[in-house]
Amino acid sequence: MQEAVLLNDKKILVEAIRSAREAVVNMGKELMERKLVAGSWGNISVKIADGVYAVTPSGRGYANQKPEDIVIIDSACQTLDGALTPSSESKLHTAIYAACPEAQAIIHTHSIYASALAAMRKPVPAIIEDIVQIIGGRVHCAEYALPGTQELADNAVAAMNGRKAVLLANHGAVCWGKSLEDALIVAEILEKAAQIAIICQSCGGAVELSSKDAEIMHSFYEEHYSKRQMGTEK
């Protein structure tokens, strides 16, 4: 029988906690390699069970993070296990989990091009097919709020509007996925689309895909192509 612990009135397998912590640490290093974050900025979380999440600690760089540094929190951002302070953006993460039941992982990046559009408080337009396939269409920019506040979390959820990503005004971007790997793809596609948008703006602009076409492509991706990527559909 696998060993379990009681967290937030739920019996959670010790192996599930260990696996989540290791996955978050590995993803932090991956984000640094792909230049989506730097130092200790940005944050990562994984859903372990309903109301139980593994999240990066506040102010600790990704390069030297260890699994035991990752904090286990509940939906009220209270620490359930771990010696360090959880990310200051924990409210942002728990708000997205509450609003998006499919979300199993969240990555908050400070990538250059997405952050540039966030600084201009402009959306990432639906000008390339992969952003509409994977994210769902145009990615909006949330109204500005101070970092770490409930207002920031509420604004992000409101601006997300059914998408898998949102820009945070003068701040960065936040993306969710059905796994950490899925959230990473969303973050990379968002950054690529933001870069293309900025290039196009300097050359006279781009033509945005229609909402109808975006919906068709996103539905096909969700219902078929994503399953083929995971090997669950031929």
Overview of the molecule:
- The chain is α+β, with helices and mostly antiparallel strands and 234 residues long.
- It has one domain: L-fuculose-1-phosphate Aldolase.
- It has 7 helices and 10 strands.
- The strands form 2 sheets. An 8-stranded mixed sheet has the order 6-5-4-3-7-10-9-8, with helices on both faces. It has a two-stranded antiparallel ribbon with strand order 1-2.
- The longest helix is centred in the last third of the chain and has 23 residues, at 180-202.
- The protein starts with a strand and ends with a helix.
- 43% of the residues are buried.
- The mean pLDDT is 91.
User: What CATH architecture label applies?
Assistant: 3-Layer(aba) Sandwich
**Average pLDDT reading:** 91
Q: How far apart are the first and last residues' alpha carbons, in Å?
A: 35 Å
Q: What is the CATH class name?
A: Alpha Beta
- How much of the sequence lies in strands comes to 15-25%
Shape: globular
Let me know the CATH homologous superfamily.
Class II aldolase/adducin N-terminal domain
List the total number of helices.
Answer: 7
Q: What is the chain-wise order of helices and strands?
A: EEHEEEEHEHHEHEEHH
- The CATH topology annotation reads as L-fuculose-1-phosphate Aldolase
Overall structural class, as computed from helix and strand content, comes to: alpha+beta
